[in-house]
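hey can u check if this looks right to u? its 343 residues, i copy pasted from the old doc so theres a chance i mangled smth
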Amino acid sequence: MPRMKAIDRRTAARGLAAAWLGPVLLAAGLTALSACGSFGARAKLPPARADFLGKVEYIITKEERKVFLEMPDSDRDDFIAQFWKRRDPTPDSERNEFKIEYEDRVIKAGNLFHGEGRAGWRTDRGRIFILFGPPSERLTYPMDASGFCREVWYYGSFPVIFVDEHCSGSFVMTAINLEHLQELNIAQGYFQKTVNPEKKLFDYQVSMQKTRAENGVYEGKVFVDVPYDTIWFDFKGGRLETTFEVRLEISDESGTTAWQAEDAFPLALEEKELIENRKSRFRMEFPVVIDKNLDRLKTQKLRMDVSVRSTTGNEELKKAVTFQLKFDPSPDPGGPSLRLGSG
C-alpha cells in the first residue's frame, strides 16, 4: 500500500496525525464500520470470538475479517496470534507493544465511557480514545442555548467535537463543517497502516456448480480461485513457480464423509504473465460425484471443509461452510450455486 502523501493546504490534519503518533501507531476508523455483508456469519461466532472481533473492529482489515469469519473455529486461535504478530513493531522482542497498548486503551475506554447503554469501547468517545489515546485537553460544556451538551477534545490544536443532544450522557462525534470532516479523514489515513504492507493476506474463493442431479446421482464441480495478487512465488530458472495443495471434504450433519478429494496444482509463469493477470484469479477445479444416501443428504445441511496450502512460504488457510445440495435435474443456469468467500 503506497504511503499517503501530505496535502499542503491541510496542515492542521497533518498536525493532528503527528499529535496522535505515540509509541505505537494505531489504525483509525472515524466512522462506524460497515458489516460488509458479514453480520450473519458474525452472529454465529462463539462469544469469545465475537468479543475479539468486536474489540478489534477499528483496526482489522476487511480481508482479515473475511478470512476470520470463514475459517473453522479450531484455526482461529492461530489467526488471532498472527493478527497481533503482523502488527508487532518489534517482532524480535517478547513484548508486543502494539497489542499491549491497544488492549489497555480498550479497557480504559470501557471504564471511562460505560454510561451510554453499550460497552464504553463501542461509543464514539471510546473509539477516538482507543485509536488516538487521551486528548491533550478535554473541555466539557453543560447545556447551551440549543439544549445540547458538548465535549471538545483537543489533539494539539485540532478539535474533536462530541454532542449530546439530550444531555443524557450519550455523545456523538460531530464535524464542524465539510473541511473539518475532510481533515479528520486525512488524519485517519495516517493511522490505517498497522499491518506490514509488503505482503497481501493469502485468501481464496470457493464455489460449487451443479451439472446434473437425477437417478440417484449428484454431479457438479467445485472451483477454488486464488487471486494472483495474493500469491507468493519461488523464482526458478527465470520463471515464477509455486504449487497449491488442496483438500476438500463434504460431510453430513453427523460428520460422516459424503465426498472428498485432494490434488496438487503447480503454477508456473513468467513475470510478464503475472503482471497481465494480477487482477484475475488462478482457478483449480474438482469434479464432484455423490451417488450414495442422496435421499438423506438432500434433507440435511451439509458442510464443506476446504484446505489450501501454498508450498511457497508453507501458507495454509482452511475454510468451512454449511449448505444444501440442489436436486432439481437442470444444471445451474447462472453459474455456481454455492459461494464461500466473496473477496
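Residues 307 and 318 are 4 Å apart (CA to CA).
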